[in-house]
Amino acid sequence: MHVLHTLRRAGAVLLLAAATLYAAPAHPAAADEPGWTAEPAAGAAATVRPYFYLAGAAGTVLEDRLALANTTDQERTVTLRGADAYNTADGAFAVRPAAPAARATGATGAGSWISFGAATTVKVPPRTRAVVPFTLTVPPASPPGDHPAAVIATEGGHEVGVRVHLRVGGPALAALTVEDVAVRGRGSAAVIAYTLVNRGNVALVPDLRISAEALIGEVSDPPRGRTLPVELLPGQRVELTEPWPGAPALDRVRVTLTVTAPGGARAVATGSRWLVPRGPAGWTGAGLLGLGAATAAALHLVRGRRRTLPGPDPDPDPDPDAPPEAGPTTPAPHHELTGAAR
Fold it and tell me: 47 near 41, Cβ under 8 Å?
């Protein structure tokens, strides 16, 4: 029975994972039922692909196919194009709007490398599925790493995007930094704000760990580590926040963020802030905290001065080979050494 239960549980997990992958933003599932869909054409093994994955060296031409399915009783006219992909300020995946003028001026994003040839506009008959080939030409001088893009299909004001994961051959560098760490808000509304920057050439899914400490009391319910729901694209910067409902109401806190990602990427940054309630109670608490900090500093200074005050030199140990003193004697004259050794 235990084995059967384990198998059922594993099957449920696989079904949930498949459903999540199918419903993820990377999958071009049509919203608002437009009557047509766009997705990568099935490969030789008839496998369903949630996105395009292409890899090759700089200067190569890569090929793939897009499938358009018309499920209605009327003909559909779909326009196709490539688009550059980027992260929004909050980390979401987005594509840039059509900009023929930008391409004409020499745009170098991977979206401009995608071409449908003469099939930029496709008429799909009713109840028909059309497969449209396209090419992606990697320029000879393209740097190695990930170049995010998307294939965009538009019809009647409805737009569907299919992600394109392009990896150009060469050294892969996973590197990131965490910046602008700050504690904002008070009480249960407190949050830890920070900025992540992808300094490498591959997309990253970072893990975050936060540790916190307070000047006076103990920090209750510190934030826990987790995998961030963000795919940080190369060269992109995102601003994120983490809730901190257990932040102290009156204290000086310091938070340390450690961010890691596959490939050896790691970054650490800290931020601190006085957390003081609003109103008269807050001013009173701030005054008490300031008085306590000043007292602690004064005590530390006094103790330091006591440790550094000069005292009398201890008596030198008597020489065991010296003859015993016969009584009071006239002290020997003191010779001051003022020159170099002779």
Answer: no
The pLDDT tens digits of the residues spanning 272-289 come to 999 888 655 444 444 545
Residue 182 domain-assigned (yes or no): yes
Q: Is residue 334 part of a domain?
A: no
Kindly tell me the burial class for residue 137, based on how many C-beta atoms sit within 10 Å of its own C-beta (0-12, 13-18, 19 or more): middle
Residue partners of 3: CB distance under 8 A and separation at least 6: none
> Cβ(253)–Cβ(219) under 8 Å?
yes
Q: What is the pTM of this model?
A: 0.70
The span from the CA of 135 to the CA of 51, in Å, is 15
Q: How far is residue 276's CA from residue 210's CA, in Å, rounded to a whole number?
A: 21
Express each pLDDT in 65-83 by its tens digit: 999 999 999 999 999 999 9
CATH of the domain at 187: 2.60.40.10
